[in-house]
Amino acid sequence: MRFLIHLFGAGLLYAFSLAPANAATGGEPVAVTQVDVAPCLTAAAADDMDKAATDCAAVIDNEKTAKDDLIKALIARGALYARHDQVDRAIADDSRALLLDPGLADIFNARGELWLKKGDKPKAVQDFGAALRIDPNHAKAKANHKAMARELERIGAQMAVAGKPSFNCARARRAVERAICGNRELADLDREVFASNARAIRQARDAAEVKVLQREQDEFIARRNAQFGRPGYDLKNAMRERLQQINGVDGY
Predict the structure, then answer these.
(1) Do the beta carbons of residue 54 and residue 91 sit within 8 Å?
(2) What is the CA 135 to chain-centroid distance, rounded?
(3) Helix (H, G, I), strand (E, B), or coil: what is residue 50?
(4) What is the pLDDT of residues 165-199, one digit of tens each?
(5) How far is 82 from 92, CA to CA, in rounded Å?
């Protein structure tokens, strides 16, 4: 008897739980309202920041939004943020879209360009590389990755010679040479002077100009060696003046 009472009570509870859902349609389940992504995409495409902020948030912040529509809204809003130089917000939207779908080569490339705007070159290279792993023929990612690889190679080469002069410090005998070897700024200046003079010689119009350029450099070195250590002689300033003489006032 007690079993029947419990069974009857459970049946009533189940019936009551269905009543609100069935009441509105006369026995049919209430349909789930679909989230419309179209207004967000339209506002973003029209570059309407104010409208997109509202319409896209309504899609992105709604738990019932379908995954595909959520990705579309994130990409659209991210592109809008990028166009308005709101880089951090654009990266956040692109990152969320990539978590939902890691196969979006275009978005990896777009986020890589945003990292580049922030000055984060390693992350930019990672994203360009990720885009190429997904689509080896992605033209933009290929060009971006190639350019960044060259840039990082150049930076690496600069770091490798940073603080090293144009000559071998192990063979430094003169006091001025030892001073240059013992100071990173002087070493960098010495290397710049040497490289600039070498470039000027390569670009010389004829042999006569080459002779003039080389004589000027030899005279600078001789003067530097003779005057270093004398009262009033400023080695750093002398090297900067020589660099400006070679490159010109505008650095060319």
Answers:
(1) no
(2) 20
(3) helix
(4) 888 899 899 999 999 999 999 998 998 898 888 88
(5) 11
